[in-house]
Each structure stands twice: as C-alpha cells, then as structure tokens.
C-alpha cells in the first residue's frame, strides 16, 4: 500500500460531501493526486473544493453512482477508491451504486477500496443485549430495519438519516461489498462511523449530521436525552486513509470516539458558548449501549477531544453563516 508523500492517484466518490471533502483535503495535504466525483461539475457548491491546496492535484469528474461508465472513467488509473458518496433519498443508488463502484474498481485493478458504511449497519438489531459490547462482529438485522419505524427525532433531515431504509441500505451495501471482496479477491475495507461532527468546508448547505448540532445550538423546547456516539470528521478521514495505507487493514472497522448523553453534550456546548438558545427540557431514554473502536485503535488510530470537535464545528458554522437563521 501507499506511504504518504508521493503522488499516487486515488478516487473519492461524492467529493463535495461533508466527509468526502475533508478526506480530499487530507489526501491533497499528503501528496496524493485526487480524482473526485461530483454530479454537477461547474455548480458553485463545489467551488470550495477548487480552493483546496495544491489545487492542481485535484481533478473533478462528473459521475453518478448509477452510471457505471461515469464511475469507471473516474476510477481508471487510480490505486485506491474511497467510496464515500451516499444518497439520502432512495435505497437503490446506495446498493447498486456500491456494486458499480466495486465492479469498476475490479476492472480498473485498483489496489484497495475503502467503503464508508455506517454504525447504522451495525447496531439496529433486537438481538443485541445491553451487556454486549458492540464491535465488528455485530450487524444490523435487515428484516428488522425494514419492519421498524425510524427514530422520532427533532429535524426532518435527521429523521431521514435515521429512517430505517437508511439502516437497511447501509447494511445491504456493506454486506454486499464484503461479499464481493470474498468472491472476486478485490481488497475491500469498510469503516462504520458514528455521528460525524467537526468543521464543514462547504458554505452552501449543512449535511444531516451537522444539522443535529445546529439544532442543539438553535434550541428547542424538548429533547430525548439519548446516548450519542460521536466522531470528528478529521479523525474519520485519518481512519479512512489508514484503512488504505496500512497493509494489515482488513474487514470492517467501527469508528467512534465519544459516547455522551444529549444533555451532557448540551452542557458542554453551553460552557463553551453560553449565548445560544439550547433545548430546555429532556425526556429520559434508556438506550445505553457500549461500543468498541479497539480494532481501529490497534491500527494506530487516535482521536481528538470532544471540546475541540465542538469548537471547530461551531466556528465553521459561524463562518458558513449556518447559525444566522432558525
Ligand atoms: N454524517 C454522518 O453522521 C454519517 C454517519 C455515518 C455514516 N455516514 C456515511 O458517510 C458518508 C458521507 O456522509 P456525509 O455526511 O458526508 O454526506 P453528504 O455531505 O450528504 O454527502 C453525500 C454525497 O453523496 C453524493 N451522492 C448522493 N447521491 C449520489 C449519486 N446517486 N451519485 C453520486 N453521488 C451521490 C452527493 O453528491 P453531490 O454533491 O453530487 O450531490 C454528496 O457529495 C455516507 O456514505 C454516509 O452514509 C455519515
């Protein structure tokens, strides 16, 4: 696998997204030449990508996950593919799109594909007892995902993020990716992040997970005092790159840094930024579960303190103007 500092070509799908853009920034800083896929090249929402340095090492390709040829054009010639793009509208692009990315990667003979899955592919399973330490051996139950209602929550977008078709599609896409790897010999590593916070690079729209933090800052009457698992987008980008650069990386990796109750999270924010509105009341929820990222840590992964993630998130929202309106 690659070691940092020389110009290997790699492809990042959905380069304009929250996670993917942070990864593109990291890759460019490490000397990689990046092929980034976007659906609407020329759209001003990608302008921020063109400002990342060194800008001559980033090339944007028009590609849709459902269009094999467009993906192949972006992937051919690359040593690695980081498959980050995921639609929030329907299941098909998540599953079929992943298959397209894997087939194109196999045809283009890439060394390794790193697929960004989700904790949603891990813990949605009624068989998981409270005592069970959630690790890479755990899978969400696809039938259960399909049958159950999404978690009621406090933003429409978060509702979308947590609706169970999302759990279903991430579970299906990740398991198909690992099966594809077994069948074909293509090296595939998957990363399952929890709620991703941290600085946004875009200034047009906030992604679903940033909206969760924004909602806390803008306040609301009442909230469930749920357990939150949180990872910083920059630490996740490190994990994704490690999954490529470390030859010993294999299979899946849970990627979580902090476990905290919502009310405690709000109190941390209030200490750092006393002047925002913040939620007023909480209803208790008995949803405690233990989660382990030990496998990733044993690859050498480290994460930053939560306070740093919160401050850098809020400062980036201010800069993007996300905190200006309700
Ligand atoms: N955010 C979280 O808390 C969280 C937690 C766990 C896992 N994840 C996973 O992390 C990944 C990135 O999430 P994110 O928060 O960075 O999402 P995001 O900011 O909404 O970005 C999603 C990206 O997917 C692209 N996309 C959507 N449909 C596509 C299609 N049909 N063809 C090609 N590209 C398509 C979008 O491209 P355009 O720019 O062209 O619209 C966008 O760049 C996803 O796989 C998500 O499931 C996220």
TrEMBL record:
UniProt keywords (A-Z) are: NADP, Oxidoreductase
Q: Which domain of life is it from?
A: Eukaryota
Pfam families, per database record: Epimerase
Molecular function (GO) terms for this protein are:
oxidoreductase activity, acting on the CH-OH group of donors, NAD or NADP as acceptor
Cite the NAD-dependent epimerase/dehydratase domain residue spans from the record: 10-250
Keyword check for NADP? yes
The record, for InterPro entries, names:
Epimerase_deHydtase, NAD(P)-bd_dom_sf, NAD(P)_dehydrat-like
The similarity comment for this entry is: Belongs to the NAD(P)-dependent epimerase/dehydratase family. Dihydroflavonol-4-reductase subfamily.
Identification of the protein by name: Cinnamoyl-CoA reductase 2-like
This chain's source organism reads: Senna tora
């Amino acid at each position: 696998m690659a070691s940092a500092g020389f110009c290997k070509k790699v492809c990042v799908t959905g380069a304009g997204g929250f996670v993917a853009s942070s990864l593109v920034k990291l890759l460019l800083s490490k000397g990689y030449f990046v092929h980034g896929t976007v659906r609407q090249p020329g759209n001003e929402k990608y302008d921020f990508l063109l400002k990342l340095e060194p800008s001559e090492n980033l090339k944007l390709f028009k590609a849709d996950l459902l269009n094999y040829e467009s993906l192949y054009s972006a992937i051919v010639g690359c040593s690695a593919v980081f498959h980050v793009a995921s639609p929030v509208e329907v299941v098909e692009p998540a599953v079929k799109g992943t298959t397209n990315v894997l087939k194109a990667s196999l045809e283009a003979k890439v060394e390794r594909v790193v697929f960004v899955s989700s904790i949603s592919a891990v813990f949605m399973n009624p068989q998981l007892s409270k005592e069970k330490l959630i690790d890479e051996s755990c899978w969400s139950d696809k039938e259960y995902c399909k049958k159950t209602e999404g978690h009621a929550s406090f933003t429409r977008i978060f509702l979308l993020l947590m609706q169970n078709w999302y759990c279903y599609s991430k579970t299906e896409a990740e398991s198909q990716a690992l099966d594809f790897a077994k069948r074909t010999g293509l090296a595939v590593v998957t990363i399952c992040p929890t709620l991703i916070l941290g600085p946004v690079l875009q200034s047009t729209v906030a992604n679903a997970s940033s909206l969760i933090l924004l909602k806390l800052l803008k306040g609301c009457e009442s909230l469930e005092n749920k357990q939150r698992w949180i990872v910083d987008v920059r630490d996740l980008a490190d994990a994704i790159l490690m999954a490529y650069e470390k030859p010993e990386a294999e299979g899946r990796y849970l990627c979580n840094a902090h476990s905290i109750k919502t009310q405690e999270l709000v109190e941390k924010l209030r200490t750092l930024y006393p002047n925002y509105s913040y939620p007023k009341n909480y209803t208790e929820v008995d949803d405690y579960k233990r989660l382990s990222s030990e496998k990733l840590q044993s690859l050498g992964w480290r994460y930053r303190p939560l306070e740093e993630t919160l401050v850098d998130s809020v400062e980036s929202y201010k800069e993007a103007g996300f905190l200006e309106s309700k």
